[in-house]
Amino acid sequence: MAEQAGAGSESLLNQADSMWKILDDLADSDPEAYKRFIDKTLKEGSTFFKSPEPCFCISTILLPSVITHELFVNICSWEQMVAPKSENDPIPVMAGELQEKTEGQTTYSVIDIIVNPLVTKGVANSKDRKNLLVHVALDYIENSKKIQVSRKYKNSKKTYKGDPTNLRKYLRHGRNKE
């Protein structure tokens, strides 16, 4: 077993060594192509490792509710989410975990909803687009989390309820996180 692990490591080292030799040869033979390759790779890497970005937050309530239980929905955009193919196609959506939080005597829930930036583009300038996106998010929450939420909502003054640095967790799990 240890021999197989060693052979696998050796194979990886050989592949890495080959890759470096190819890059060295490219840098020597065509410095401009090498620069384009490095620039493209760095650009793709910075997009790939960029966390979702908060766009806006709404608050609504969980149903049925004897005691009002507020739900904050953080709408975020992320390049890693697939964009809809056209205006008429369904919007690909990802939801984070439904988290219950307490501040003082108040208990509330928070959830992140993540879509492609093309979906959030123009939402700030159009009440109709924003309302459509909110209802898509609420539908998704109800279907994926098996809960009911009120369709009446308020826009939060903050763009994100909670700590936006927590959005980095999606980098570990990718788009498949539910």
TrEMBL record:
GO cellular component: cytoplasm; R2TP complex; ribonucleoprotein complex
Domain PIH1 N-terminal: 47-166
Any one Gene Ontology BP term: box C/D snoRNP assembly
InterPro entries with a match to the protein in the record: PIH1/Kintoun_subfamily, PIH1_N
Family: Belongs to the PIH1 family.
Protein name: PIH1 domain-containing protein 2
